[in-house]
């Protein structure tokens, strides 16, 4: 059976033949992979009857809400480490969020136990995410900080990064459970915070044995290593 990367599946979904899409579905249904983004594809498709149009629509909705990175021109070692594109962190993480309006809950398809939100928590999360997508990081942080999950911790950390509070952002990323789908990416952002704080030796220690699991992590890891030279 042929194997596919996330980017290849995305391309086939948008422009491929039905035969190519069927091959992608067969690969996804086998679940013989470890990459979080591919697991996310499975979780989304399995919740939507493996519908191609639903997948394309979901991808398009994420791409249309990309958030430009705030440029920190006063930082000596400025680098852009939050690219929010279709194969980036927002897509990889958001694809794990399956909204269920009938049951007023959000199912987080994590490697640990699923997290369920009641109607109030659901509203808080949605408002916080909307603020995040509009680059209103103060408001987004306030919302995420009211919730108790690795998802909310992760996005709260991203908000703090955008607000240049790298010490507190580091602490939020550190709170994420080792079993979480966000842990690997959180480690990269911890290293990024340390670099911004000019704690280069500590950042290097975090990255020494780091193993990237998707394109986003590989790209960010390479950027961080460049800034440690």
User: What distance lies between the first and last C-alpha atoms, to the nearest angstrom?
Assistant: 41 Å
**Basic shape:** globular
By CATH reckoning, the class of the largest domain would read Mainly Alpha
Multimeric state: single chain
Order of helices and strands: HHHHHEEHHHHHHH
CATH topology name of the largest domain, in short, is: Serine Threonine Protein Phosphatase 5, Tetratricopeptide repeat
Question: Into which percent range does the helicity of residues fall?
Answer: 55-70%
Protein described:
Residues 65-115 have low confidence and may be disordered. The protein is globular. It contains twelve helices and two strands; from the N terminus they run αααααββααααααα. The chain has a two-stranded antiparallel sheet. The chain has two domains: 6-63, no CATH class; 89-226, Serine Threonine Protein Phosphatase 5, Tetratricopeptide repeat (Alpha Horseshoe), CATH 1.25.40. The chain has helices spanning 6-15, 18-30, 36-46, 52-63, 89-94, 119-133, 137-144, 150-162, 166-174, 183-196, 200-207, 215-226, and strands at residues 97-100, 105-108. It is 57% helix and 3% strand. The protein has 229 residues and is mainly alpha-helical.
């Amino acid at each position: 059976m042929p194997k596919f990367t996330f980017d290849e599946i995305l391309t086939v979904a948008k422009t491929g033949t039905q035969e190519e899409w069927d091959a992608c579905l067969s690969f996804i249904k086998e679940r013989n992979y470890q990459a979080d983004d591919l697991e996310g594809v499975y979780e989304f498709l399995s919740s939507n009857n493996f519908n191609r149009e639903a997948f394309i629509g979901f991808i398009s909705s994420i791409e249309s809400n990309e958030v430009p990175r705030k440029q920190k021109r006063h930082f000596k070692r400025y680098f852009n480490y939050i690219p929010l594109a279709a194969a980036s962190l927002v897509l990889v993480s958001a694809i794990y969020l399956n909204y269920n309006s009938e049951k007023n809950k959000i199912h987080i398809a994590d490697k640990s136990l699923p997290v369920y939100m009641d109607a109030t928590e659901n509203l808080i999360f949605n408002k916080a995410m909307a603020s995040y997508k509009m680059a209103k990081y103060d408001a987004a942080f306030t919302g995420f900080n009211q919730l108790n999950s690795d998802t909310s911790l992760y996005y709260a950390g991203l908000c703090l990064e955008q607000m240049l509070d790298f010490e507190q952002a580091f602490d939020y990323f550190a709170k994420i459970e080792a079993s979480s789908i966000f842990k690997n990416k959180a480690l990269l952002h911890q290293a990024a915070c340390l670099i911004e704080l000019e704690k280069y030796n500590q950042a290097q220690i975090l990255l020494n044995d780091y193993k990237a699991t998707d394109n986003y992590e590989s790209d960010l890891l390479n950027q961080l290593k460049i800034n440690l030279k």
